[in-house]
Recover the amino acids of this structure.
């Protein structure tokens, strides 16, 4: 599969080597798939209570190993401690606890009604596991964006083969360790395979029953194309270019503080962060001053207890700087920092010189809409500010994107804010807040347009990792059903009359009278 049978992992802060990992061969991946299939055959029949007990045990193990997990996430990504705790571990615990308490109710058979023409039938829907789920995860939130789909898949009765990002393999190992010593689980229920993108291709080639991928649009397209050859269902959680809309009546100090967090949290390396800031003209200058002052207060690259750390990967810095430089070349202004200087990484410098990939948060204005910094996901600490005059204008401009993941609307007029939220072409929206909605376990999460396919979290997430089966039971003992052979002219006439009366524009009395002959036919059989 590759010239080397291993890959190395580096500390994003120091650049030193912190791990060496074997890359599995295709035969090893196929073996893992076979083992997972065997485990799924056992686990699919496990009781809801047994699955809930597993989630409870994982939750307790996370708490027992909290400090070690935080340190591992920080070592793998370079992020600060509170970011790891607040945005990686806390949301994972929320969804764990939610499914632990609710999975039985969510996956119970659901009774459904039956039409008159199926009189005497009982109808319901059942949810059953898909089988083996391949989960391919990113590096920006390596704990949350791995553990949440893993536990959702397992709670739904599936086995999992998990490939973490090759940039954050340490966190992947810690997640696998949470399941490792639970002896009552079938062997192979959760397996981890490490490696670069070609390992993910090999995993898809092995033929899992579902693929869950979080990452870039470009990679998502490749995965979908490969999966289509085997008609493997996919869920894709992809990138965002999320609009942040501030109306003139917004709580301005709060909106400015939220904007700084939405733009710069995790050094801007999050798909649900704000990337396009639309501010109504009447308050634009005041808003710019506020965000400038609040950005100056940030503790940037001051160690694990600061606000913002370095970028996780050095190559990400070049992409960010290229977008900023293009904007500057086309007339954009830098609001903050006052002493901004761009510096692209030289591809010929040593690995040690490339780390840490530090970058100051950047605020820009005077921007043209066709710039890459407004059209492509930046995934870095950049706040591009644009102004607008009317609500209809900003909705149209915010929707002028091929991406549609998250969004944020700021106004004291809740009715107007809700109207804007409805009209934004995004899978998710927050009013007078930012980012937090991704951590709400009760709400489904996912994108529209090129931001993804499918939903996870909430009841919808658990059901999305399940197959749906519709079942009807006929309680009749009669020898013949009305719709069986031989066909009779009187049945035709009675059914025609029923349809005309019941579904046509008829009075209630006419509907009832038109139904009686057909009911009598049913009773006769």
């Amino acid at each position: 599969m590759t010239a080397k049978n291993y890959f190395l992992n580096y500390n994003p802060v120091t650049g030193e080597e912190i791990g060496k990992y074997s890359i599995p061969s295709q035969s090893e991946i196929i073996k893992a798939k076979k083992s997972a299939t065997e485990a799924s055959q056992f686990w699919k029949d496990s009781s809801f209570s047994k699955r809930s007990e597993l989630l409870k045990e994982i939750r307790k193990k996370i708490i027992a190993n909290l400090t070690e997990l935080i340190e591992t996430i920080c070592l793998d990504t370079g992020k600060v401690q509170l970011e790891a705790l607040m945005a990686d571990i806390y949301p994972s615990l929320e969804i764990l606890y939610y499914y632990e308490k609710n999975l039985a109710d969510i996956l119970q058979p659901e009774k459904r009604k039956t039409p008159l023409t199926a009189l005497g039938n009982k109808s319901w829907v059942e949810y059953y596991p898909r089988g083996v789920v391949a989960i391919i995860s990113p590096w920006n939130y390596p704990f949350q964006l791995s553990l949440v789909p893993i536990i959702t898949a397992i709670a739904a009765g599936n086995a999992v083969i998990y490939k973490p990002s090759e940039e954050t393999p340490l966190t992947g190992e810690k997640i696998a360790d949470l399941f490792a010593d639970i002896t009552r689980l079938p062997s192979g229920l959760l397996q981890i395979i490490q490696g670069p993108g070609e390992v993910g291709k090999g995993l898809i080639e092995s033929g899992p029953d579902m693929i869950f991928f979080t990452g870039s649009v470009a990679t998502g397209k490749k995965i979908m194309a490969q999966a289509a050859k085997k008609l493997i269902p996919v869920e894709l959680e992809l990138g965002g270019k999320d609009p942040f809309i501030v109306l003139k009546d917004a709580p301005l100090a709060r909106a400015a503080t939220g904007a700084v967090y939405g733009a710069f949290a995790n050094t801007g390396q999050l798909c649900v962060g704000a990337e396009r800031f639309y501010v109504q003209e009447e308050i634009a200058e005041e808003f710019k001053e506020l965000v400038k002052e609040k950005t100056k207060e940030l503790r940037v690259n001051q160690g694990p207890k600061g606000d913002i750390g370095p970028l996780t990967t050095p190559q990400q810095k070049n992409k960010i700087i290229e977008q900023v430089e293009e904007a500057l070349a086309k007339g954009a202004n830098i609001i903050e920092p006052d002493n901004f200087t761009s510096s692209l990484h030289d591809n010929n410098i040593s690995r040690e010189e490339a780390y840490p990939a530090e970058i100051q948060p950047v605020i820009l204005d005077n921007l043209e809409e066709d710039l890459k910094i407004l059209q492509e996901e930046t995934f870095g600490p950049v706040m591009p500010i644009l102004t607008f005059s009317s609500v209809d204008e900003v909705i149209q401009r915010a929707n002028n994107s091929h991406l549609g993941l998250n969004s944020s609307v700021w106004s004291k007029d809740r009715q107007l804010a809700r109207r804007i939220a409805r009209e934004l072409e995004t899978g998710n929206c927050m009013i007078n807040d930012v980012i937090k909605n991704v951590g709400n376990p009760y709400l489904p999460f996912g994108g529209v347009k090129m931001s993804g396919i499918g939903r996870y979290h909430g009841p919808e997430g658990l059901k999305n990792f399940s197959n749906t089966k519709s079942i009807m039971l006929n309680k009749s003992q009669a020898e013949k059903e009305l719709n069986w052979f031989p066909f009779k002219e009187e049945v035709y006439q009675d059914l025609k009359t029923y349809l005309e009366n019941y579904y046509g524009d008829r009075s209630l009395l006419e509907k009832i009278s038109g139904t009686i002959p057909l009911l009598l036919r049913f009773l006769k059989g």
